[in-house]
Amino acid sequence: MTSVTSAPSILPLTLDRVAYEVGGRRLVGVEWATIAKGRKTVVLGPNGAGKTLFLRLCHGLIKPSAGTIAFASGIRPAPQQHAMVFQKPVLLRRSVAANLHHALALAGLGYFERRRTSRLILNRFGLGDLADRPARVLSGGEQQRLAIARAVAVGPELLFLDEPVSGLDPSAMRQIEEMLVALHADGLTWVMTTHDLAQARRLADDILFFHAGRLLEAAPADRFFAEPATEEARAFLESRLFW
Amino acid sequence: MFGTFSLFDSAFVAIVLLSLKVTLTAVGCAGLVGLPLGAALALGRFPGRPVIIVIVNAFMGLPPVVAGLAVFLLLSRSGPLGGFGLLFSPAAMVVAQFSLVLPIIIALTRQTIEDLWGEYRDQLTSMGAGPLRAIPTLIWDARFSLVTGLLAGLGRAFAEVGAILIVGGNIAGFTRTMTTAIALETSKGDLPLALGLGAVLMALTLAINGLALAVSRLGARFAG
């Protein structure tokens, strides 16, 4: 990966009294939260809990109505320093390799550097044989792997993933989880939303638990699963969550 | 075969070639200008944008004779561009057809690109591409839909007679195209020749459209 090694770390990411409101309705409320370097954070909660909006706020796609979302010591990161993978991968109507070339071009890489890096990345994630295939005709799992490969190709320090395995079969899900574990081992910090408890148990270092738009709990995963602090979290863990 | 000239003599071939040259040049230029303008109109947010969209859409139905008249006034000796001496030349015909085709390409491009931007916006923004940088990406990814807009423009230019008749003058061997020749031969009463020319015009239009559709279908299959 073409990591921006010289740049100072953008982490931790800190949210302070953040609110996101539309038409006077509060859709997301976060009193305080932090994304620490080197952690695998899972944003957990039922559908409609505000998990996706939380990611979009952190990634800067939407602006908070109130509060501050700040990277380490006030750094304004370049677009390539934190990336996002969307629930439904948005792949360009081009070949697999061209999708990577495009992302790398946006990151400012020259022609030959783009070719070299994309080959490296595709081979690393087992997509090398698909390089010339149209991205849009890949299977769901392959598309999502390509979307993740494209997101990390530019060397971000932090990656947001919005339900990256929803709707995928178990083997595709396992491939993606392995990919995420390997990326973390390489030093990538990531934040993933899911409502899949088993997946959260497998992957999470930290849990951010959302319910009805509010961040109710932020805790290390083992503590969250052993002794959830709120009634909502207990209910969610026992699959009897009310709305 | 058809009185004054046969379908295969050099005068006839020259007419067909001039028609193709004028129309393809006009549509090519309109595409070069109209695609980026349409995309910019799709992505840009500025005051007066709705007004511009309405005007562009309305100009899709601009009557060719009116466009011809406007270009005639621009290019005539006493007009603002009269110094170039372009009136009654193929160049003037290109200008007239360009002005007819441009609104079609802008309007159809705007619609196509706006829809695609809706799908791509988050992803491109996330990757650090602002609207300006997104324009080439969107045009390339919409290329197979945009062919339809170019074809609509081509159809209009190819079939059009009013504008090029006014600014070209239907001068034999110089500015006579298939459509202006058809108009002339019909008024002269040489209906078989007019019909023959009409058949060739139809065949060429069909061939161009078929080719373009085949290319875009094939491309779409390989690009997904």
Based on secondary structure, the structural category of chain B is mainly alpha
User: Which strand order does the major sheet of chain A show?
Assistant: 5-6-7-3-8-9
CATH topology of the domain at 13-89 and 157-237 in chain A, by name, is Rossmann fold
pLDDT < 50 stretches of chain B: none
- Work out the oligomeric state of the chains in this entry: heterodimer
* Estimated helix fraction of chain A: 25-40%
Count of structural domains of chain B: 1
Q: What count of helical segments of chain B does DSSP give?
A: 9
Low-confidence stretches of chain A: none
> Can you tell me the CATH class of chain B?
Mainly Alpha
How would you portray this structure in words?
The complex is a heterodimer of chains A (243) and B (224). In chain A, a hairpin with a 2-residue loop joins strand 8 and strand 9. Chain A is built from eight helices and nine strands. In chain A, the strands form two sheets. A six-stranded mixed beta sheet of chain A has the order 5-6-7-3-8-9, with helices on both faces. Chain A has a three-stranded antiparallel beta sheet with strand order 2-1-4. Chain A has a domain of 158 residues: Rossmann fold, CATH 3.40.50. With 243 residues, chain A is an alpha/beta fold. Chain B is an all-alpha fold and 224 residues long. Chain B has one domain: MetI-like (MetI-like fold, Orthogonal Bundle), CATH 1.10.3720. Helix content of chain B is 77%, strand content 0%. Chain B contains nine helices and no strands. In chain B, helix 1 packs across helix 5 and helix 4 packs antiparallel against helix 6. The longest helix of chain B has 37 residues. The mean pLDDT of chain B is 89. At the A-B interface, helix 2 of A face helix 4 and helix 5 of B.
What's the gist of this structure?
The complex is a heterodimer of chains A (243) and B (224). Chain A has 243 residues and is an alpha/beta fold.
Structure characteristics:
heterodimer, A: 243 residues, alpha/beta, Rossmann fold, six-stranded mixed β-sheet, B: 224 residues, mainly alpha, MetI-like fold, 9 helices, 0% strand, globular
